Amino acid sequence: MDMRRKDPKEFRNALGQFATGVTVITSLDKDGNKVGMTANSFSSVSLDPMLVLWSIAKTSGNFEAFNQTDHFAIHVLNAEQQQVSNQFASKAADRFEGIDCTLGHAGLPLLPDYGAVFQCDTEARYEGGDHIILVGRVMDFDYKSHAPLIFHAGRYADLPAAQ
């Protein structure tokens, strides 16, 4: 077995073998401006109380806004939302351009389409190496029966058809 324990690029490639859903996280910065980004570091934590988590790199341009927020929304994207994922992953000045958001819990910007959405209060923050792990207490949620947007090995992937 060829172990590549010290190479961060190889570590990232190994992590990429785990297929994930794709999310867009939205919030407001300290000045009340909408912020949003694509992330695939989403996970459930607890059913009682309802808790979820995601993590953000300390080098992210959105780090300060999300590290200081008391509220955020996690939108699980559906298979038809690859463009939305790309838009929120871009360096665009206005990642919300062309998207008519509604206002949710604590004034959070909510995307009009999703597979699921979780509106959260920030419950805890934890150091996680070069990331901060944000745990959210789910205050409200909704979901729709859509196929998920999937990411695997550095690219979008299709869900195999059911047999």
Structure description:
With 163 residues, this protein is mostly beta strands. The chain has a single domain, classed as Pnp Oxidase, Chain A. It has three helices and twelve strands, in the order H-E-E-E-E-E-H-E-H-E-E-E-E-E-E. The protein has helices at 8-15, 63-68, 82-89; strands spanning 20-21, 23-28, 34-39, 43-47, 50-57, 71-76, 102-103, 109-110, 116-128, 131-143, 150-152, 155-157. The strands form three sheets. Strands 3-2-6-9-10-5-4 form a seven-stranded antiparallel β-sheet. The protein has a three-stranded antiparallel β-sheet with strand order 1-11-12, with no helix packed on it. The model has no long low-confidence stretch (mean pLDDT 93).
DSSP strand (E) fraction? Answer: 35-45%
Report mean pLDDT, rounded to a whole number. Answer: 93
- Helix-strand sequence: HEEEEEHEHEEEEEE
**Residue share in helices?**
10-25%
How many individual domains?
A: 1
CATH class: Mainly Beta
Q: Give the termini separation.
A: 34 Å
Radius of gyration over all CA atoms, rounded: 16 Å
Strand arrangement in the largest pleated sheet: 3-2-6-9-10-5-4
Broad shape? globular
Low-pLDDT ranges: none
Largest sheet: number of strands, sense, barrel closure: 7 strands, antiparallel
Class from helix and strand fractions: mainly beta
Got a strand count?
12
Secondary structure tally, helices: 3
The name of the CATH superfamily reads Electron Transport, Fmn-binding Protein, Chain A
In the CATH hierarchy, the third-tier topology is known as Pnp Oxidase, Chain A
> If classified by CATH, what would the architecture be?
Roll
